[in-house]
Amino acid sequence: MRIALLGGTGDIGEGLALRWAYDTDHDVVVGSRDPEKARAKADEYETELDSRGLDRTVNGFDNEMAADRADVVVLAVPAYHVGDVVESVSDVLDEDTILVSPAVGMSRDEDGMHYNPPGVGSVTELVQQRAPADVRVVGAFHNLAADRLANLDVEFDLDTLVVGDDEDARELVASLGGEIDGLRVLDAGAAANAAEAESVTPLVINIAMNNADMHDVGVRYL
Amino acid sequence: MRIALLGGTGDIGEGLALRWAYDTDHDVVVGSRDPEKARAKADEYETELDSRGLDRTVNGFDNEMAADRADVVVLAVPAYHVGDVVESVSDVLDEDTILVSPAVGMSRDEDGMHYNPPGVGSVTELVQQRAPADVRVVGAFHNLAADRLANLDVEFDLDTLVVGDDEDARELVASLGGEIDGLRVLDAGAAANAAEAESVTPLVINIAMNNADMHDVGVRYL
């Protein structure tokens, strides 16, 4: 399967790219608005994997080329860019593509982080609204601590959630996520449930801020 | 310490009453709008504790009498009753009382449960608004699965959160919660962070609805 990580040069994109490249045989492609940056990051990931004895090709392209012919396109960009990035790649998406939305809208004040979704209710639903109608959208990988994910020396045993209106698409993304060592993906249901899933991101940041010895906080549901 | 569980005849109130009575020496008092019902439930809890070899007094009163002279008053009532219950006991609260709010506003549709907070942002902030100004308010114990909590045969190893503007009050409630075996209480910061903490309740219900073999889902932050 071909997985394109748009914004694959940023923190959550970096973590997912490295983990999928390290733990699976899927074709991992890094996208960025700037193709030079994407190529440089892809090279960096290859070097990192090579240092662990893994001879692995990771390609970098501009977002549109990265999304073209990808089976799964992950929008690993900040929430306020998501809509524009979806539109910039819309021409190369079709009913075989699954768009994955890990972004969370947040605001910060002196009390901590607050969930600050777009008017439509959640970033997942915003992506659904902006994507071509036949493209299936799944919200996923929201509350993974990027630093833990991107450091292949760190083992974890964490859960993450999928939400979206197409059950097959949720299952496919859940199964793809489950191929990352230590990650369990649970199903939180329809896109209408995305806000509660996205809200966990500011929550775990607030927990990290308010409790000694808790950093890069993740979640297990049990 | 004297802990009054208003709505201590309902599910989360029952669980907290039984656990505190079983695991600690605190004076546990059950409140209800109907004092007969409160007494009947208190007797039931005593019988349950007695069957486990614990000779323990649990008293039942109407809400106002239960709250009177309690150090900690837990509003274990549905979200849409919380404001009225706060007002009904306001006369007996003072600056030494800590009001604890575990309720979560939710709506249900065909997709699942949705967080549906009051206009002020969260039930915790609603309680703060309705309580006398000198009473300290802590949101806590939101996302504990009531059935697991109320069944003393069930061991668990779960986290719950405290939120509120008074750090000492958060600490006291966290420490009281931590006296329940298997419960760890983490600090999620100010009352402005309550919405994200309360949102976890519909989320864990949605997770239970959408994943085989997951029931009464709880959370660990790690």
Q: CATH homologous superfamily of chain A - what is it?
A: NAD(P)-binding Rossmann-like Domain
Low-confidence stretches of chain A: none
Give a short account of the largest sheet of chain A: 8 strands, mixed
Helical region count of chain A? Answer: 9
Helix content of chain A: 25-40%
Second-tier CATH architecture of chain A: 3-Layer(aba) Sandwich
What best-fitting shape of chain A do the alpha-carbon axes yield? globular
Q: What is the CA–CA distance across the termini of chain A?
A: 30 Å
Total strand segments of chain A:
11
Query: What is the CATH third-level topology name of chain A?
Result: Rossmann fold
**How many structural units, i.e. domains of chain A?**
1
Strand percentage of chain A lies at: 15-25%
Q: What integer is the average pLDDT of chain A?
A: 96
Class from helix and strand fractions of chain A = alpha/beta
What sequence of helices (H) and strands (E) makes up the elements of chain A?
Answer: EHEHEHEHEEEHEHEHEHHE
Task: Describe, in plain words, how this protein is organized in 3D.
Two copies of one chain form a homodimer. Chain A is α/β, with parallel strands linked by helices. The first copy, chain A, has nine helices and eleven strands. The first copy, chain A, has one domain: 3-Layer(aba) Sandwich (Rossmann fold). In chain A, the strands form two sheets. In chain A, strands 3-2-1-4-5-8-9-10 form an eight-stranded mixed β-sheet, with helices on both faces. A two-stranded antiparallel ribbon of chain A has the order 6-7. In chain A, helix 4 (79-89) links the parallel strand 4 and strand 5 (98-101). In chain A, helix 4 (79-89) packs parallel to helix 5. The interface between A and B is medium-sized, with 35 and 35 residues.
